[in-house]
Amino acid sequence: MALGRIARSVGRSATDEGLTRSQSLLLTTVAKHGTIGVRELAEHEGLNPTMCSRMVGKLEEAQLVTRSSDAGDKRVVRIHITPAGARQSDELRARRTAMFARHLAELDDDRLDALHDALPALEALGERMCRGREVRE
Length: 137
Known about the structure:
Elements: H1 2-15, H2 21-33, E1 35-37, H3 38-45, H4 49-61, E2 65-69, E3 77-81, H5 83-104, H6 109-132
Antiparallel strand pairs: 1-3, 2-3
Helix pairs in contact: 1-2, 2-4, 2-5, 3-4
């Protein structure tokens, strides 16, 4: 329940920028890689490639990403972050960081220590869930 509330709060920061939570996750991933294939992006986000391509289309309409054919294999579509997309991704990250900092500052030292101690287990759980998740249709 707590992780769900945190995820929803983080997702709301994306809607302030006019993006859905899913679009903001895609934008963040593309920004992290600079360039990524649609299939690789879909796998990373656990999406059906067709659904991922549609979502990329919305980001492309907003001029946050561009698409091109791979030079070595014309069947492969590559997604590239634009300067506007990189700026928006940076703004989203800054907003999320500020939100976490604000809320963490309100916790006492015992709670902060407990969170710190729990992070490795949460990271391992997240990695395991990402590796084992099935593609969403």
